[in-house]
Write a structure and sequence with these properties.
The structure is a homodimer of 385-residue chains. Chain A is built from three helices and 25 strands. Chain A is globular, with a radius of gyration of 20 Å. The first copy, chain A, has one domain: Neuraminidase, CATH 2.120.10.30. In chain A, strand 1 and strand 2 form a beta hairpin. Chain A is mainly β and 385 residues long. At the A-B interface, helix 1, strand 21 and strand 22 of A face helix 1, strand 21 and strand 22 of B.
Chain lengths: 385, 385
């Protein structure tokens, strides 16, 4: 085709250069795709570990070990070919979307050894998304501390959000889904449901939170009007916080997070509630002057999960790009975002590993991916192949 | 999953009702997919005829016969299980994207018997997109008349456009690609390249064309600033003309056509030219105040081909929806468009028949699809199964 013949030369040169970057395949690893062709590079997909029941999140330790949560409960430590289910993981109430959820390594892990995690806590009468931290000691999580829990319990099963993001100012963000509650609560500024909360590392409220002194607002709230954010990432060169958010039928959103903003749900939405048969919301409900519009709507539906933002030497043509995992769409979307707009998108891994649950960049610069399956696995995407 | 359990009852009822609409499979037809699950209905995909070399367009005759063009040359008549290569098809210059292109039945075919077609005409030194009409007489096209050709010949191979659409006012539209010419010509209002032209049925210029009396404008031009439109359809309830247009890398557009408008290429574009390595166009080139913005950008790339707009009893939940075929994306996108926005999108046929070249609704209300392949085929999509 014409396109290939015009750009073929430089692509081949790029392949040759990048293929040097792929390391040897370890004995415990399995090559899933030797040569995935993408717009800028050839990539290799490896299976690093498997046998997880609906894995939800992967945390990458600086020394190359990995931690994987699985939604029905449990945290696994992956050390090369060895996989250990850790003692001391929290008890979770695992129903439908609830269970053991996110896990992230503290940015100063080398000094303090903290690992942060979220999960659904409670019983059949009501659950809350909760945040805790613990340290890794051999095959155990020790010094476990609960730091925060949402202030409203809801019938288990729906919209926990629960991603954690460390900012560079000594605080962290935690996303909290709207819990699918009726009447809806994401516009209730005293309720943590449907928000992002910002906390100090010990779970206390930062003095400079946007609503910390405002009557009628829970002081932990950083932004509100969210439905269910399951992807959050920091763009290191700009400091921007990006999130991917599940809409109702249609209406999956990419949002740029600004403190104090109301993101509209369920007053302003691009999608339809599953409960309402038939018509789309009318124009009044798609936009609202006082509420932040999404930067991008995923059309068709992505059902967004983990989000990573690429940086570093391994993927030079993807620098600053968002990698948005999709559950229902069963792919990763690579999005090039500049001047507040999505300029370009490419589908990756469609038809390869099914529903994507998490996407992270490791300290080694490679991309780690979990698929959501009864027998799920951890994959690594690297240039070359 | 929760979604299915909430809406399952009504979906099952809908399936039951719609499954009555699928007719018996004819002896010469082959079921490709018995039960394609979509958001609103279960559909069946049948192969109606095969053995076409890169088929480009299908025309559906009122009596159930079909005409299929193939890009390297030739027009086939499909009459149930019989396939006849017609005598009297035009000579074409078939290089790369050029060759035998569109074919459409005149809206008063029953009275006048005219079939309209486009193709690339010329030689290795230069080709033009041309429009002709002929009548079907047994195994031949007779009374062949050339009606129009683009006023600028270009080195063969790129960006012919060449879709035909009959309007309801006694005129027709023909899309003409920019021919990939350098320097670019889509902003040259004397040049048919990169335009939609509007013609009377006999190829003459309608008196009420937007630029008919304007100095410096070719009188056939209806709109300009297009790169390469390969999908065009009329929404019968609103009279709107919709087109899908190939962008450069990224920048595939859905446009609503208003007479006299400049659609911006290559001054304003959402994509990048393949020639320019690296950066995206800066903000100044993505929008221009005097030029029409697209209604929607296909992200990721669709590489849009044939476009149909659904109406009628067979697909009640798709009424008024656009079905946009995709070459590179190898799928059909169903788009729900209201109040000037794409409100919802669904992928259809991904992974089923490969590159989609044409999508039409037949007089029988079913959807007809051609795939672009060395051994391409004609398919019918119908509810039920």
């Amino acid at each position: 085709m014409l396109v290939l013949s015009r750009s073929g030369g430089s692509l081949i040169a790029a392949f040759a250069a990048l293929s040097l970057m792929a390391g040897p395949v370890q004995a415990h690893e399995e090559v899933v795709e030797e040569s995935l062709s993408t717009e800028y590079l050839s990539a290799r997909l490896l299976k690093v570990a498997d046998g997880f029941t609906h894995p939800w999140a992967v945390a990458l330790l600086p020394d190359g070990r990995k931690l994987v949560t699985q939604r029905p409960g449990g945290v696994y430590l992956i050390d090369n070919g060895d996989k250990t289910r850790l003692e001391g993981a929290p008890e979770v109430h695992a129903t439908n979307q609830g269970g053991m959820l996110d896990i992230v390594v503290h940015p100063e892990y080398g000094d303090n050894g903290w690992v942060y995690m979220t999960y659904s806590k409670g019983d059949a009468d009501g659950t809350v998304p909760a945040l805790a931290r613990a340290k890794l000691d051999g095959g155990s999580l020790v010094d476990f501390e609960e730091l925060f829990e949402s202030n409203t319990a809801t019938e288990p099963g729906r919209h926990y959000g629960s991603r954690i993001l460390f900012l560079e100012d000594g605080t962290l963000l935690m996303t909290i889904g709207d819990r699918g509650a009726h009447p809806p609560r994401a516009q209730d500024t005293m309720d943590h449901s449907g928000t992002i909360v910002r906390l100090n590392y010990d779970g206390s409220v930062p003095d400079d939170n946007p609503f910390v002194d405002r009557e009628g607002y829970a002081p932990e709230i950083y932004t509100y009007g969210h439905r269910n954010i399951q992807g959050i990432a920091l763009r290191s060169d700009t400091g921007e916080v990006w999130v991917t958010e599940h809409g109702p039928r249609g209406g999956d959103e990419l949002n740029l997070i600004e403190p104090g903003q109301n993101y509209g749900w369920p007053v302003a939405t691009l999608g339809r509630d599953y409960r309402t048969e038939g018509d789309f919301p009318d124009a009044e409900t798609r936009q609202h002057d006082d509420m932040a519009d999404p930067v991008f709507e995923f059309l068709p539906t992505l059902a967004p999960s983990g989000l990573a933002i690429v940086n570093g030497e391994h993927f030079p043509h993807w620098e600053g790009n968002l990698l948005a995992g999709g559950l229902r769409a069963e792919r990763v979307l690579r999005l090039s975002v500049e001047t507040g707009e999505v300029l370009h998108a490419e589908e990756l891994l469609h038809g390869t590993v099914g529903r994507i649950r998490d996407v992270r960049q490791g300290p080694d610069g490679y991309i780690y991916i979990l698929n959501d399956a009864e027998d799920g696995a951890l994959y690594r995407l690297e240039p070359g192949g």
